[in-house]
Amino acid sequence: MTLTVQTGVQVTSQIVRTDDVHETSQIVRTDVHETSQIVRTDVHETSQIVRTDVHETSQIKRTVVRVTLQIIRTGEQAVGVSTQGAQAVGVSTQGEQAVGVSTQGAQAVGVSTQGAQAVEVSTQGAQAVEVSTQGAQAVEVSTQGAQAVEVSTQGAQAVEMSTQGAQAVEMSTQGAQAVEMSTQGAQEAEMSTQVAQEAEMSTQGAQEAEMSTQGAQEAEMSTQGAQEAEMSTQGAQEAEMSTQGAQEAEMSTQRAPEMEISTQRAQEAEMSTQGG
Predict the structure, then answer these.
(1) Spatial contact of 166 and 250, defined as CB atoms under 8 Å apart
(2) How many domains are there within the chain?
(3) Which parts of the sequence are annotated with region: Disordered (predicted)?
(4) Residue 20 is assigned to a structural domain of this protein
(5) Has residue 264 been placed in a domain?
(6) Could you give the angle at the alpha carbon of 219 between the alpha carbons of 213 and 225, nearest 5°?
(7) Higher-confidence position of 155 and 218
(8) Are 249 and 110 in contact, with CB atoms under 8 Å apart?
């Protein structure tokens, strides 16, 4: 009887120490290790997509600049508006400027998504930042800390480019400059130059820059008492696209003369598309 009691106690203590504690610690360590690998893979793929987008955007900028220079040489100035099928918000002058729309992360011109960037550049005929104006459409691309291309739809379509920091293409709606995109029968882009080619787009009194699409499509840019679209130039125009922390969309010109697009001196450039 004494030998039987001692043998049962030994077997019980061995079973408790073997199974539960040892297997549980292995499962916990396996889960944490796999999670860290997935996080590192996502960050690596995102940086590759950002570099591809910036490269494609710079090519489209150069095309828009080339078209703008040709229009200026003929004696009529325009905001780089291609008028075949679709209009582009021409914020390019001499050099290489583009509508710098940076968001959180590292997006280049356009509508960005979470995780990876998307450069939404609809190009019918080689336009950058297309503003389709059939009916009353609006393209809002707002950002935090960097540049924003706000397209408000009060009345029609408006393209406001507000910048924080040192950006050069400001399209605000306070002051005396304005860029109106309206469609009164035909498309108009009235632009004039003062002294050393500066790009001011205003709509007080006689200053108007009306850009319309086929038929009766309107895209009015800004709807306050005196809408402004100031394009500042400092030497050679740059289009830097950045977000909070590292990426900024600076559009400045440090080599080329300034272009003021206004109608204070009666210079108008009417550009009509199909249907006008």
Answers:
(1) yes
(2) 1
(3) 172-276
(4) yes
(5) no
(6) 145
(7) 218
(8) no
> Looking at the chain, how many residues does it have?
276
Q: Is the model's pLDDT at 270 over the cut of 50? A: yes
Please give the structure tokens belonging to residue 33.
């290790």
d(CA 103, CA 142): 8
Specify if 180 maps to a domain: yes
Q: What SS3 state is found at 191?
A: coil
> Which 8-state DSSP code applies to residue 274?
T
For residues 80 and 91, the answer to whether their CB atoms sit within 8 Å is: yes
Q: Which residues touch 171 (CB under 8 Å, ≥6 apart)?
A: 159, 160, 161, 162, 179, 201, 221, 222, 228, 229, 230
Give backbone dihedrals phi and psi of 115, rounded to 5 degrees, phi first: 95, -65
Q: What is the DSSP letter of 116?
A: S
The boundaries of the domain holding residue 70 are: 2-116+131-254
| Phi/psi of residue 100, nearest 5 degrees | -75, 105
Query: Is 122 inside a domain boundary?
Result: no
Give the per-residue SS3 of 95-113.
Answer: ECCCCCCCCCCCCCCCCCC
Q: Which of 182-186, 217-221, 263-267 has the lowest mean pLDDT?
A: 182-186
Q: Considering only CA atoms, which of 153, 107, 161, 148 is closest in space to residue 132?
A: 153
Go through 208-224 and write b for each residue having 16 or more CB atoms within 10 A of its CB, e for each that does not.
bbbbbbbeebbbbbbbe
Give CA–CA dist 188/217, Å, rounded: 12
Q: What is the pLDDT of residues 132-174, one digit of tens each?
A: 333 333 334 333 333 333 433 333 333 333 333 323 333 333 3
